[in-house]
Amino acid sequence: MAIALSQEELVAQWENFFRDYYKDRIEEAALDWPDTRSLVVDYKDIDLRDITLAEYVLEHPTAAFYTAEIALRMIDVPVEPKPRLKFRIQGLPETATVDIRDLRSAHLNKMVAVKGLVKKVTEVRPKLEDAAFRCTLCGCIFRMPQEDYILEEPEVCPEDQAGCGRSGRFKVVSESSGFVDHQKLEIQESPEGLRGGDQPQRFTIHVEDDLVGTITPGDRCTINIVMRTQGRRQGMLKLTEFAKVGEAVSVEQEHQDYDEVVITPEDEDEILALSQDPLIYDKMRGSFAPTIWGMKEVKDALILALFGGVGKEYPDGSRSRGDTHVLMVGDPGVAKSQLLRYVSKLAPRSIYTSGKSASAAGLTAAAVRDEFGEGQWTLEAGALVLADLGIACIDELDKMSKQDQSSMHQAMEQQEISVAKAGIQATLKSRCSVIGAANPKLGRFDPYQSISDQIDMPPALLSRFDLIFSLKDEPSREFDTKLASHILRTHRAGEVHTHRKHRPDGKYTIEDENALFDKIVPTLDAGFLRKYVAYAKRNIFPVLDEDAAKLIEEFYVDLRNSQKEGIAFTARQLEGFVRLAEASARVRLSEIATLDDAKRAITIVDHYLRSVGMDPESGTFDIDMIATGTSHSQRDRMQAIINIIKDLCNENERGTAPRDELLERAEMHNISKEKAKAAVDQLKAKGQVYEPRSGQYRLTT
Ligand code: ADP
Ligand code: MG
Q1: What is the CATH number for 644?
Q2: Is residue 573 part of a domain?
Q3: Ligand 1 site-directed mutation target among 297, 331, 334, most atoms within 8 Å of CB
Q4: CB-neighbour burial class of residue 465 (10 A; exposed 0-12, middle 13-18, buried 19+)
Q5: What average pLDDT does the structure give for the chain?
Q6: What angle do CA 384, 387, 390 make, to 5 degrees?
Q7: Whether residue 116 is found in the same domain as residue 82
Q8: Ligand 1 pocket: which of 487, 492, 519, 520 to mutate (most atoms within 8 A of CB)
Q9: Between 258 and 430, where is the model more confident?
């Protein structure tokens, strides 16, 4: 408990403090006025000099700030008139940091630090600070300082300010009033601190004057606040239950990437030791979703995505992203969601969300008018902004809105999102890797249709993904047996564990339990892996060596030239390659991406191409399958059918192609009746052919 100090004592103590410690800084600030409008003092300095004063600041911030500003004006500066510097404090001790969910009435009118992620920011508006009122009866103008967020109006025209004393009507005279810039923001708990499944709690903070405009949605920061109450009304009635709000004193942006991950020297030793382990890639895989059987390549790809490649900046100012985007498309029940959850568990920073996001900002960002801004325009960050410098795990990506689809292009490639609407103009950063899962529209994956059609996503957006895996759920005796025994084993392990917990004297021993858990216990613990990833991303920036570059180049050139035409494998995919090789080097904390890293990248890309680019008929690899869903052989056949229809229409006096003749001619071109029928159906589905009368075909164009 801080001891009571009189106002004079406080002013005197502040004055001494300023004179001894901050004289130069105050002078500097005054000279820089009005660009600098406040003096920012480190809490530590006050604490060192004067413990009672430091304690006073936390316990009675209102009095402390009021007196500090009086004392500030007593310090001589070589500027006339003396500017009214605002007093701000930063660097509160750990003990004054409070989780958003733990803010209670005990904190009212105290100074505390809250940490989190800025979700929304309103536009800047002038707020009345020093109101000038005109009495409509006598016409005199008088002043009334405004302290609260609700306008305080005079009851009578004040006689001590030459007024008439009547309770006439009063009007605000804006020219004579003093305004300050004001903005509201909403901060939410960072996802890392949340226990699984908890919804992040939010808190409203008011910022004023020179702090306005310094914060954008998606920022991670510590905001030092004085906690205040705000009266609430229900119609004309004032309620006794108040809302709590924060009044910002200062803002400290996070100064290091992944600040929230604390790595001790012991952790570092352990990290460095693991990086030398020749089995590191297997250990990583063994620790990634061990309850999910198989999916070796997908797991490897997701692990590389966790580490990410190197973001680069070029001398001309352009940049290329280092983040790997991965998409999993496939049948229901193939563990897509489970894998996503795992990614978000292991990533040092991540957001897990569904494409069908409920918030107005959707996946990207939006300017909205909502209750929070009381009709003001508010800029709200969506998942991709909140996941800046981390990973956005988006399930059910097929369900995202059209609006999100269009802003995703920019978000995924340029890694920023621009919003320009109604006085709000902002470019928010979204330097994150996107890991998405999508279900086909018709429930099951259809190898004859393009992925783009199946999940309703334009090919241009699909091409932003470095890797696309199509996960099919096809019955196979061998695979099913292994999968089933793995899942059953997992469940039995869980059963024995639960059984032992409730019946310690039951028939199962710890040995039984351990034997069952043996295969599904992650090799490395999730908390440690998160630290490992954060360490690698912070410190390691690998460079491709020449052998690696050569190998990737050869693979790329071969791949492009093994295609007959219409190549969908582009330079963008080539960049994806490089990112994977870099990530692979990062896994073992190597500054050089070697031939082995290039090979690992190629194995994964090769698997991806096979999973989405395989012609279901010939069993050969065909990149066109990704973009169009039609292989060369299918396309050639469809082209042949189109030609036949064209010919028949010209020959036939009715201008249509009869079905029987069509199939006959197709056979002459070595196309079986079955395949010809399938091709006609596909052409009809694509709208290139129609059937004016049953059994008669015509071309649309
Ligand atoms: P999806 O999102 O692809 O529809 P889920 O991730 O919800 O599928 O998985 C459905 C269930 O099937 C989960 O409980 C998951 O553990 C199980 N499952 C699916 N594939 C595997 C696998 N390969 N190994 C272990 N469990 C699996
Ligand atoms: Mg799912």
Answers
A1: 1.10.10.10
A2: no
A3: 334
A4: buried
A5: 82
A6: 125
A7: no
A8: 487
A9: 430
CA of 438 to the centre of ligand 2 (A): 8
**Considering only CA atoms, which residue is closest to atom 9 of ligand 1?**
335
Torsion angle defined by CA atoms of residues 264, 270, 275 and 277, in that order, rounded to the nearest 10 degrees? 180
Contact 11, 58 (CB under 8 A): no
How many structural domains compose the chain?
4
Residues whose beta carbons lie less than 5 angstroms from ion ligand 2: 337
Distance 394 CA to ligand 2 centre (A): 10
pLDDT over 70 (residue 509): yes
- Distance (angstroms) between ligand 1 centre and the Cα of 664 equals 48
* Residues near 176 by beta carbon (within 8 Å), at least 6 away in sequence: 132, 141
Judge if the upstream peptide bond of residue 34 is cis by omega within 30 degrees of 0.
Answer: yes
Distance 701 CA to ligand 1 centre (A): 46
Percent of the chain with pLDDT over 70: 91
115 and 14: one domain? no
* 154 CB burial (10 A radius; 0-12, 13-18, 19+): middle
pLDDT, tens only, 224-261: 999 888 777 777 777 777 788 888 888 888 766 666 67
Same domain, 121 and 211: yes
- Determine the residue type at 314: Y
Shared domain check, 462 and 390: yes
pLDDT, position 302? 93
Task: Using the predicted structure, report yes or no on whether residue 185 has a pLDDT greater than 50.
Answer: yes
Q: What is the dihedral of CA 113, 118, 122, 123, to 10 degrees?
A: 100
Question: What atom in ligand 1 is closest to the CA of residue 340?
Answer: 6
Could you report the per-residue pLDDT of 355-366, keeping only the tens digit for each?
776 566 778 888
Ligand 1 pocket, residue 586 CB under 6 Å = no
Q: At which of 70, 90, 110 does a domain end?
A: 90
Same domain? 233 vs 145: yes
> Higher confidence at residue 633 or residue 178?
178
pLDDT at 307: 92
Between strands 243-253 and 220-230, the pairing is antiparallel
CATH of the domain at 54: 3.30.1640.10
Mark whether 135 and 153 lie in a shared domain.
yes
Ligand 1 within 6 A of CB of 483: yes
Q: What is the mean pLDDT of residues 414-427?
A: 79
Cβ–ligand 1 contact at 338 (below 6 Å): yes
The reply to whether 235 falls in a domain is: yes
Q: Is the peptide bond before 81 cis (omega within 30 degrees of 0)?
A: yes
For residue 339, the ligand 1 atom closest to its alpha carbon is 6
Whether residue 245 is found in the same domain as residue 308: no
Q: In the prediction, which pLDDT does 567 show?
A: 41
Range of the domain at 648: 632-699
Domain ends where: 477, 510, 541?
Answer: 477
672 lines ligand 1 (CB under 6 A): no
Are residues 147 and 175 both part of a single domain?
Answer: yes
